[in-house]
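Hi all, a correction to my earlier message: I attached the wrong file for Phosphoinositide phospholipase C. Here's the right sequence:
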Amino acid sequence: MSKQTYRVCFCCHRRFRLPVSEAPEDIKNLFELYSENGVMTAPQLNKFLLEVQKEHNATEEGAQATIDGLKHLNIFHRKGINLEGFFKYLFSDNNPPLSPSLGVHHEMTAPLSHYFIYTGHNSYLTGNQLSSDCSDRPIIDALKKGVRVIELDIWPNATKDNVNVLHGRTLTTPVELIKCLKSIREHAFTASEYPVVITLEDHLTPDLQNKVATMVTQTFGDVLFSPGSECLSEFPSPESLKRRIIISTKPPKEYLEAKEVKEKEKNDAQAGKNLGDEEAWGKEVPSLKGGTLADHKQNGGDDEDNNDEEDLDDGDKSQHNAAPEYKRLIAIHAGKPKGGLEECLKVDPGRVRRLSLSEQQLEKAAITHGKEIVRFTQRNILRVYPKGTRIDSSNYNPLIGWMHGAQMVAFNMQGYGRSLWLMQGMFKGNGGCGYVKKPDFLLNTGPNNEVFDPRASLPVKTTLKVTVYMGEGWYYDFRHTHFDAFSPPDFYARVGIAGVPADTVMKKTKTLEDNWIPIWNEQFEFPLTVPELALLRIEVHEYDMSEKDDFGGQTCLPVSELSTGIRAVPLHDNKGEKYNTVKLLMRFEFLTL
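and the right structure:
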C-alpha cells in the first residue's frame, strides 16, 4: 500500500503517501566506509562491529552468521550484504541497546545490603489502595517480571480462625494467605533464580502467628532460609541464597487492639483522592533538586504510616506472648528503634536489620542526615514506601532512595506512569535478575571514615551523546486513526536523563507532521556527574493541537549498561509491555573529557 486515505467529512477525503523506511544519511556513510562496490562482507561487517559498535568480542564467524541470517529478506548478496541489508540488521531485534549476552554480570557474593533490590509495595492489590480486589494474580505478574520483594499485609479473617491478606481498614476484598504463599512458591524463580524476600506486615494474635509459621514452613519447606531467632550479624549474599525464600518482618508482639487504629491514615487517604495522574501516561517524575520532591508541598504534611512498622523494643517486654515458631522464621528483622532519627540510623556492628521510611520521611531525613543514611545502608537494609495519599497506586521518584543507598525502594507494581518506568529501567540491568549491585561510592568509606555525600556538587565524569535517527512500527501496531482521525501522526521524541539532581534533564526533538516513519536526525549531549545511577529516558508522543498529546511509546535504560554505537531501541506501552514492532534507531556514544 503506497497511499492512505482519511475521511475529512461525509464527502471529502484526504490521501497521504506512505513513506518507505530508508537508511538515514549517517548509516549510508558508514556503509560506504565499511563496504566495497556496494557489498559489505563478513570481515568488513566485523570491522564495523569492532570499531563503531565497540563490540570487542565480535568475530568474523559471528559477522558471517549475521549475514546468513538476512538471506530470507531477499536482500542477500553472494559475497555479503548490501545497504538495505545493513540497514535492516541495524534496525532489527538482533541489535538491542542492552546486550543480552551480558546476563548476570555483577558480583553476586556480597551481602544483600550491597544491592538495589526490585521491590513491590502491597503486592496483592489489583488496583487502587482503597477499594480494589486483593489477589495472588498481581503477585504472580510481579514475580514473572523479576520483582524480588513481595509485601503481604496479614490480618485475621472474619471468624478470627484463619489468615487473610488485605489492605487493612479499607474496602479492599481479602485473599487467603495460603493462596498467596502457594503462588509465590510456584512462580518465585520463573524470571530469576535469586532470592525472593517476603515482607510481612503483621496484625495477628500469637495463635494466628503460629498458624502462619505452619503455613510458611509447609509451603516452602527446604526453600525457606531460616537462620533461627537471633539477628544476623551480616546479611548473606544473593549467590548463597539462590532459589531461597526469605521472611522479613518485625519481631512478634502482642496483638494490637482496635484502639490503635490510626484515623490519620484514613484522613490522608481521603485527602489524596484528587491527586490522580494528570496525563494518560502519568505525571512527570518529580524533581529532586533542593532535596525535596516537587509535589511535597502540595500534598502537605507527613505520612506517618505507623502501621507499616512498629517500634522495636530492645528488651523482651513486648514478646511475652510471642510465637516462637513464627519468630524463628524471620531472617531479616525489621522495626524502628524508640527515639528519633539518630537512633533509627545507628549502625550496630553486631547485628543488621531493616528499617522502613515513607517517601516523605526519607525526603526530610535526607536534608539533614543524608550521609548518615548512606552509612546506615552500607550494612543495613532501608526500605522506602509510598505515602498514604497515593490511593491511586501511583509512585514517587525512586532516585531519592537509590542515591542514598536504599536497597528496597518499594513501588506499586500494578500502576503505571513515569516513575514506574524508571523502576523498570533500573532493573533491566544485570540481566534482569532483580538485583543490581550498588555503585562502589555508596559502599566505600574514606581514610577518615567519611562516606558519599548525596548533596555534594560533583564534577562531570563523562558525557553521553545520543543521536535519535528515526522511528517505525506504529503503522503496524496501531489503527491508522488511533493518533489522528484526519491525517497520519505528528510524532516527536523526548530524550533525557533521570539521575542525581545535577544530571536530570529532558530534551525534545522537532515535531514531524503527517508521517508514520519520522526521521528526526537530532543529537543531544548529557553531561553526567554520577553515570552509575543515571537512567536514559526515551519517550515518543504525537502532537495534538486541540487536546493532550497522545502517547506513542517509552523505554528507560540504565546508562551504565548501554551498548555504544547504533542500536534498535524497542518501545513499550505505558504499563511497560513491549510493542510488537515500534522501535527507534539511535546512536549512543560516551565522550571523553
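Sorry for the mix-up. The first strand starts at residue 3 and ends at 7.
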